[in-house]
Amino acid sequence: MKLALNTFLFFNLAGIIRSMNYLHNIGAYFLMIKQIFRKPTKWSVMKRLIFNEIDDLIIGSLGIVAFISFFVGGVVTIQTALNLTSPIIPKTLVGFATRQSVILEFAPTFISIIMAGKVGSFITSTIGTMRVTEQIDALEVMGINAINYLVFPKFIALMLYPFVISIAMFLGIVGGLAACYFGGFVSIEDYIIGVQMDFIPFHITYAFIKTIVFAFLIATIPSFYGFYMRGGALEVGKASTTSFVWTSVMIILSNYILTQLLLSV
Amino acid sequence: MIEVKDLHKSFGGAHILKGISTTFEKGKTSLVIGQSGSGKTVFLKCLLGLFSPEEGTISYDGKIYSELSGDQKSDLRAEMGMVFQGSALFDSMTILENVMFPLRMFTKQSKSEMQERANFVLKRVNLAEDDHNKFPSEASGGMQKRVAIARAIVNKPNYLFCDEPNSGLDPKTAMVIDNLIQEITEEYNITTIINSHDMNSVMEIGQKIVFLKDGLKEWEGSRDNVFKTDNEAVTDFVYSSELFKKVRQMYLEERV
Ligand SMILES: Nc1ncnc2c1ncn2[C@@H]1O[C@H](COP(=O)(O)OP(=O)(O)O)[C@@H](O)[C@H]1O
Ligand SMILES: [Mg+2]
């Protein structure tokens, strides 16, 4: 079996060449990361760029994040309540289950995938458009480190991303509360008791460590795909799609690795 | 003055520039002409330091680019202005902000000084004051080109590079832009290099002409000679339209 696998790998030359291409991309990605912090742009200019990015990436996402969190929180509560039919299970479990799934998984990971779509494709398409219209060349001609100029402010803005996720956590739990209130599955008191039950502070730490890692991925992977693209408007669209796919893949993989590392000890 | 010696540039396996040598003088507009795909843009981007050639040297008033330190390169870059083919204005900034941008990045001027200088160059390229606060997307192609020129010259460059400055413009506007570049070149004694495939430009402003073909310098000379040369590749390019063929016929008959 193993031999067959090896032979398969050995003869799959196209695959090997493709994976060399991946290796090349990974190398280029890390070189870009290094470049983000080199030869910084004048602070007076950078300050304004950072504020613009906070506005575009963070403030601009609050609406959709609030909307999704509130309703998904509600749905988690309803489903848990409807599945707990046995009378020996306490009703407080509904609040507990909602809190755990919102804090551990839904807010940090699910919202990050949404953000990889919303913010990520915005980043790839704006940087990619700057590439195809030679605006990046224009920056470089002036002797500006275009990677620092374009990516650093996004990186800093996304350091506020945990703030977005806190809002998602809060509204998810509030959404569950609202579902209890309007649907009458569990009493509000039971829900609130459940939300406060067996609280482990490390879970919050774990969630925010994930969040910071995801923020880094959402800032850098889409920037990479935008910055190094070639071609025209069509390629900008393709680059946005590719960047979304890879950002989500990396979010899911790092989620798995971080969970294994942080929770299974 | 810019001196280019034996410039080679490849991408992957594709050899694009195959050994180009020439010089461009100060206070003159030199034209690099040739068919689409002949390597004009790549050549210009090598001169700008955006691409690093594998072989050959480029010297700017005696300073050889590849021998400069990082800081010296940056200083030299600050002396260059570039007008891109599609203008390449920053679309998140207004016209005035675009023109002030190089000053904001590279000078310690106060805001009012920068504004004054930006207004001055925008006036020089004949842009009405009402348009200063428009965004590039709200400006016409000709206006965008003027702004691009204003941005390129705002920091008083010694070298000005223009990649097909009149592509996508109507013939009248194209001529206005061409003449503007030439006037500015003489006025501020700049070494100007223009990529073009437009014969009108050649007739209007070409003080020196370099003809590229398949990554090689096929021919160089003065504007007058470009119409007289026997080089087939050049005449083929120059007289590609019927009108120009007629002009040449008349010209030759006149000479006899
Ligand atoms: N960044 C690049 N990577 C690979 N090939 C390029 C790149 N830029 C230009 N080329 C190739 O170089 C050749 C010359 O292009 P270019 O200089 O843009 O021509 P021109 O400006 O004369 O129309 C073209 O075949 C083009 O495909
Ligand atoms: Mg070109």
From TrEMBL, chain B:
Pfam families the UniProt entry points to: ABC_tran
PROSITE patterns attached to this UniProt entry: ABC_TRANSPORTER_2 (PS50893)
Source superkingdom: Bacteria
GO MF terms, alphabetically ordered: ATP binding; ATP hydrolysis activity
Keywords (A to Z) from UniProt: ATP-binding, Nucleotide-binding, Transport
Matching SMART domains: AAA
Residues of the ABC transporter domain: 2-239
Protein's UniProt name: ATP-binding cassette domain-containing protein
Species classification: Bacteria, Pseudomonadati, Bacteroidota, Flavobacteriia, Flavobacteriales
Record-linked InterPro entries: AAA+_ATPase (IPR003593), ABC_transporter-like_ATP-bd (IPR003439), P-loop_NTPase (IPR027417)
